[in-house]
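Problem 3 from the worked examples.
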Amino acid sequence: MKVAIIVDWLSVIGGAERVLAEMTALYPSAHLFAVVDHLQDRAILNGCPVTTSFVQGLPGAGRHYRRYLPLMPLAVEQWNLGGYDLVLSASHAVAKGVISTPWQVHIAYIHTPMRFAWDLQDESLEQAALSRPGGWIARWLLHRLRLWDQISAQRPDHLIANSAFVADRIRKYWRREAEVIHPPVACGRFEPRASPEDFYLSVSRLVPGKQIELLVRTFAAMPDRRLVVIGDGPELKRLRRMASPNVSIMGWQPDEVVADHMARCRAFILAATEDFGIAPLEAQAAGRPVVALGRGGALESMNGLDHSRPNAVFFAEPTVASLRDGLDRFEANAARFSPHECRANAERFAPQRFRDALAQAVNKAMAAQGRRSP
């Protein structure tokens, strides 16, 4: 069996790339397709060759490839996938829109429907300063992207969502049902420690939707508490200018530094509405509890204070006052959190569980169409 794995783009290591690493481990002879490929750490590809699109050669596509998003639907439709038996796409933007043939099986693992084009349209336009009258071009482009997104979502034979939260959004925007397979959490990279240090931690891409500015503003109003932020992105310089003395914006750090801070932090903070949220569960693998916005996938993967064995505290709104309340409630209940319980919760999402569930879904879909599994 010949397998093609389709992704949106390869740039930095994040949750989507952790999923890709398990896919390439499951199908090591697969051929990868990506709109652009500028990934430095190639280990997650497990030696699989990569074919890129015409966007790869456009000016500035190395760092500013997102500017070419209007061209990406055309780009993924140009690949000739006729020689593959199984097409496995992992998509948060355009990858699921590839064109397959009737004798192929196309299974799409959906990280999320395009959030910037659907439920986060207004926020995306505002953050890009495109909500002014002259932003009508951007609004028209998003309109066209929504039309293509809905049409292309009908192409895969089988949809898999990374959470029930995403499955609900697939049902709303695409009018399709999706199986739920939660993404993998690499628990083996982390080791719990006996006692934490007195700082809170966030590990995230520094983009507006991750709400890191909210963390910085909240801790600026609490000079007695420390915050460490690890991650890179277009917001890095601005956040560093905003940061008060008790906030450290470290930028990108290697995996060993991330794992060390996960194990030493007092708690991990998640302020964004995540479709699933791998980073908070990595902190749980290191034995640390989480203070999280009570929305999205976090509600599926962690237990709040109303549970007999809590591993997280949820706050209600993405505001300074609500986050401060969450931190106060966490500190008031600190004795209820067990490193062992946090670790056990993360292990429910171990990589082998993901590979087994994905392989079973693929085999079932292949059998349903009269094809033997890879």
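Problem 4, a separate protein:
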Amino acid sequence: MAPARRAAWGKIVAYCLLTAVLSIPGYYLGIHRHGLTSRQAAAVLMWGGPALSAIIVRLVTERSLAGIGWGVSSPKWLWIALAMPLAYGLPPYLIAWGAGLAAFAPSQWSTVLPYGLHVNGLFAALGLILTVGLFDKISRALGEEIGWRGLLVPELLKVTSFRNTALISGVIWALWHFPLIILADYKAAGTPVPFQLGCFALMVISSSFLYAWLRLRSASVWPPVLLHAAHNLLIQSVFDQATVDRNGAFYLTTEFGAGIALFTVLVAWLILRRGPRSAEGDQLGAVSPVI
């Protein structure tokens, strides 16, 4: 094995092992809370697991955090990242609302405002969610993305194809969430947990192609951060909070339903069918143009 590939595999293995160990306190707090809010418990897990592990591996192996991808090659990737969750997230809710599986009732928007903010009126609440709420989501999504797309994806691209990079990173990312789905309250109500695990895993693994594609095309970690934050914002704080289940809508909606999983697969296929390319238009390293 070439030294460069051996070094990349060393970083991948070290990162995965560290993330498994350093995530334990976050899992514990996610399950038991000990007075923490859900936002605070999530921040401990997202920063104390993937982010801290990636920072340690980068500093130990490279004495630098430059490889995480702090620059932005073009603002268009930020806008594309923000639009993606609408493309795969909105259709299942429109189907549920239109078919009478759920009622559209956005009165809950005022209950999910960050930082204890209070406003009168649905549009004012939605405005705060889409602005202040987005920055709130970014503050936690950055922790995960420093790890998954700041270290894991670039290192995997050095040793395998784009398809395998997206699949491997997606499987690891999905499994990392499983303790919270099984043991904590990170789940939807009214559907079997095995069903939720399957739908969530399909959504995460298929969306990993979008995240890896953005990381490769933009040469930056920020588009994946915005995609992650926009996903959490729109699905959890906007669409879920405007949906009242009537006839099994949660089998279709939420992060744990079949609708978002299937639409994520569709959007990933549509975007990636022409093959991934770097920001400069050239294939990067071991990346294959065949998905």
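Solution to problem 4. DSSP finds nine helices and two strands in the chain. The beta strands are 102-104, 243-245.
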